[in-house]
Amino acid sequence: MFFHWLYLVPSSRTESVKPAFPSLPEDPESTAVRTVNRSSRSPTLEDLGLSHSALAYDNKFVCSPPGMLMFGEVVCGLLVWTLLGGTEYLRVPALGWVMFVSVVCWVLTVCLLVLHLTTAHTKIAHVPWSTLGLCFNSSATILYMTAAVINATSVPQAIRGRYYYISWVASTVFAFLVVFCYAANSYLSYKSWRSKSDDA
């Protein structure tokens, strides 16, 4: 029959297997070393008197005006330096300043965004975050304004119709959007700094 193998019963006889080599007597010193290694363990943070706390994701910051402006700064700033970096921007030396400002501000903004999203800034209490935010956003506004103006004045040096002409125009538009985001964030940082200085 076709299914006759289903009815086969395996044999219940088991054979004992003898080791090929006789076992050697154990050395007492190696047994003691193994016992010591098993009992020793690396100290934990609690043993050292330290504590670790999990970083939390801050949903409220994402929906707040400073959070949305910071996301706008990151997205538009990324577009500024990627649109510019994909072209022959070194032909115009002034565009090197635009690249420098856009990359440095973008990296610092990403770092601040991560600190706020993970609420790590609340764990570092000795840093005056409102003053730091005001200084950073004000400086970034001024630097990005110079970069956006330089970017706009450099566009006519590109040949109209070439791919980098369109990229330079687009990077100029996004640079002015970043200036707006940093300026609005500077105003919000000023209000936060003023309210905290009035409370103190």
UniProtKB/TrEMBL annotation:
Record field: transmembrane: 67-84, 96-117, 129-151, 163-185
Subcellular location: Membrane
A cellular component annotation (GO) from this entry: membrane
Entries under InterPro entries matching the protein: MAL, Marvel, MARVEL-CKLF_proteins
Membrane protein topology class: Multi-pass membrane protein
Short name of one Pfam family: MARVEL
Keywords tagged on the record: Membrane, Transmembrane, Transmembrane helix
Domain of life according to the entry: Eukaryota
GO biological process: myelination
Ranges for domain MARVEL: 61-194
A single GO molecular function term of this UniProt record: structural constituent of myelin sheath
PANTHER family: CKLF-LIKE MARVEL TRANSMEMBRANE DOMAIN-CONTAINING PROTEIN 8 (PTHR22776:SF10), MARVEL-CONTAINING POTENTIAL LIPID RAFT-ASSOCIATED PROTEIN (PTHR22776)
Protein name per Swiss-Prot or TrEMBL: MARVEL domain-containing protein
UniProt organism field: Ameiurus melas
